[in-house]
Amino acid sequence: MTLPLDLAGLGAGPFNLSIAALIDGLNSRGEAIRSSFFERKPSFSWHPGMLLPDARVQTSYLKDLVTGVAPTNPHSFLNYLVSHKRFYQFLSAELSAVSRAEYANYLKWVSERLPMVQYNTRVQSVDFSEGHFLLHIEGESEPVAAKNICLGTGKSPYVPECARPHMGGNVFHAIGIAQRDFSVEGLRVAVVGGGQTGAEVFQSMMDSHWGAPASVHWVSRRQNFEPLDETPFTNEFFTPQYVDTFFKLPVNAKQNIVASQKLASDGISPDTLKALYQKLYERAITGQTDHLDLRPYRELTGMTYADGHYTLEMMNGLHQQLEKLQVDVVILCTGFESEVPAYLDNLRHRLSLDEDGRFNLTRNFEVVWDGPEANRIFAVNAGRHSHGIAEPQMSLMCWRSASIINTLLGEPVFDLEQSINLVNWGREAQPEVELAFDMAI
Ligand SMILES: Cc1cc2nc3c(=O)[nH]c(=O)nc-3n(C[C@H](O)[C@H](O)[C@H](O)COP(=O)(O)OP(=O)(O)OC[C@H]3O[C@@H](n4cnc5c(N)ncnc54)[C@H](O)[C@@H]3O)c2cc1C
Predict the structure, then answer these.
(1) Of 5, 73, 238, 291, which is least packed with CB atoms within 10 Å of its CB?
(2) Which atom of ligand 1 is least distant from the CA of 63?
(3) Measured from the CB, is residue 383 less than 6 Å from ligand 1?
(4) 387 within domain boundaries
């Protein structure tokens, strides 16, 4: 019988790939961790269904899989550039943001160098028995045994309630749009959602990427088409110190804070907004924008289907009036949500979930459960509610990966101490301070 793994990773998106890359660095130093990462796809790809023309990464290329905690690890973006012999040209290009295509290529390059990542291995279910997790892989008769697991299977598309009965055909989430075979030639299209994806889809509609639409209506709940805040003090939210502070806050305060920081993570890249506005202006002066309709501050409240078209009901937040809009196609750029994955159904009753059904996580990204302490369930991209807005982003992914590996090994193999604090976030709240804090929010 094969020895149980020290760690089994479920899914190999960027977040688990970062853990695998750091483990690989340690293994080459002789500090072996027996690990395998199981990915359902036949090879690595990074949101290929959303790789629209000109899409750019919203995070610095230095915040790659490893550099923030292990700059000499060979799986860095800089090593990728050097290995592909384009380091100097990359620097000369002075890109304010790397294209998502190039970054996806970097991630794929790393994935191909990591022997512990396995493809075509979809995890169907997980059991726990006699001190081991047992992973049942589709098409395999024998389960894989592991002492610890790390859940890295990503998020699910979020579909607003009123759109759910209409999903399919001409109403779809943007998740697979770049690989979808469809045409909007001569049709009326609603793009719902005012984040980066909404902006990219709207821009592609303007450029007739899927044929020339009769009209395009871009609907956003936000007050305007709002920029990602990339300024230095906002970037402090994406530091280990801030995550530590945030983690210790009272649970009821966290939700409001996360909501108020939305533009730090979910706004539209300023470059995208500028390019879009300039394109709109140049087309407007030549009369080419009559079919374009930008509607911020509209919350989608209802959707009906009759006589071959969809009627969207929206609340105009500015005028507090209900508006109606008839379209033929609805593209939902409405983001993603976390769910407890179905493959955990057999363990679900043993997991600690909060009142909204989300994992209760420890500071070191362990799901609280009633199993033995020696058997840990880590989860990545699952703790926005507990660890803050950095959690679904790549900014701190390698720091989180290193925290997980340190916890797994029970020693600080990665030195995660930070030496400077530019902002004084205060100390952990005392009861009376906590009360004042709650009232202030
Ligand atoms: C279009 C887009 C652009 C983004 N751009 C940025 C950006 O610029 N900067 C930033 O910081 N963040 C960005 N993000 C957010 C975040 O960094 C990405 O979503 C990132 O891919 C999250 O990584 P992940 O590993 O958690 O999940 P995913 O990338 O979703 O990977 C999960 C993997 O698990 C696999 N899987 C699922 N179920 C199973 C199963 N049962 N068995 C085996 N494998 C399974 C999937 O096939 C998938 O490969 C972006 C997100 C999107 C959607």
Answers:
(1) 291
(2) 11
(3) no
(4) yes
